[in-house]
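FAQ
Q: What does a multi-component entry look like?
A: The components come first, one per line:
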Amino acid sequence: MRTDRDVTAIVRSWLEEGVTALPDRVLDNVLDQVPATPQRRAWWPARRFREMQNPLRLAVAAAAVLVVAVAGINLMPRQGGDPGSPPSAPPSPTQSAAVTPAASAVAIREGALTPGTYVFVPCTAPPCPTSDESMHLTIEVPSGWSGVVPGAVWIDENAAPGGAALAIGFGGNPPRDPCLTTDLIATGNTVDGFANAISNHPLLDATDPVDVTIDGYSGKYIDLHLPTDLSACAEFRPWEPGIYAQGPSHQWHLWILDVEGTRVVVQAMDYPGTSPERRAELRAMVDSINFLP
Amino acid sequence: MDADLIGRAQRGDEEAFASLAVAAGDRLHAVAHRILRDTDLAEDATQQALLSIWRDLPHLRDPARFDAWSYRLLVRACYAEGRRTRRWTASLRLISPIEVGAGGEGSVVDRDQLERGFRRLSIDHRAVVVLHHYLDLPLDEVAETLGVPIGTVRSRLHHAMRGLRAALEADARPAPQEVAQ
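Then the predicted structure of the entire assembly, as tokens:
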């Protein structure tokens, strides 16, 4: 009869035996694949932003100014007479309340935001586009919310039990196993392709798509309930590229829109414990969306 | 692991990642081999884990947690390999007995029985045994590495060790034909 200590000693001795060295060919194979394997950028870039080297930080800041300038141009009140005439003055992100609310819109920045109208660039995974070729939209952000990336704001860091977030992106392709994200289901770039892939996915708890309209753009609406127990995988990702479940029982409310031929996914997130007030703020932000020309 | 190296790799420096992969490859492979008990599967799992490490490095918030985080990705890769049941073979090599040290009071262990007992365990249970008894990780670190509650780790370890003990006890009992005689 062996004691527990005996069994442990036997198992430990047995585990000590066996291979330890990784064959060079396996390592070579990995390193050969690295250049063709894009890194997944974290959704929350705060730490990374602080770690950026100064030249890169300056480049990002310059790009943000460019977004503001472009958005400002688009938001300027139209001049009378010749529709092709340029604006009479350059836009400023610090314009006073004397101008229209839309004209005071500024680009989302990382950190706490004062209430007001902000310009979003659809993006949930940095590096985000900041050029004037990107789509822009404005959203009325209430008090207490913070910018995360150019396409997202959150409150209480979107963490359970009461956090919430709003993110604007382009959607992606759902993996057959949301825990692995290696075998993706192609959705094309259509609203229906994405909506049906999410709704019909056997491992996703999603409602059927229903017709919806935001700012005059039509699409589909889906509620997605993420797992209560996330211990089965490190990151539960309903689609890729995209963010992962930020906590247990995370609830995603998706407006999947066709904006002049481009699929845009408005992703509002909350938890069962999120207060009705915050949910109302979330919904008000969605209702305030205004796609810029 | 060198935090600077990890930081550079997080920012997309492929050479820094190559250095990381060289430094971490052996230990990851050793763990994968002990969980999967198959050289080919372990190589595939290690390769997959290293690519996952490269792909997901920007998500690692604390470089000091690199080792634990990499084990978590490795165990995920082992799960994926474990699902590829068609590649699981029942072929077990007959291995010569080993002498157990003083703690074993001179008893002889049939490695083949231990191998069989271990293979009957799920990947969940094997991972706990390997992380705790091979890597010497305390149970709370095993729980953190696997992303499960510590109670679950205790339960899995208890179940696994009970299974391994049963395998060893079965080995110690006389074979049926011996009883018949």
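Q: Is there any commentary attached?
A: Sometimes. For this entry: Chain A has six helices and 13 strands.
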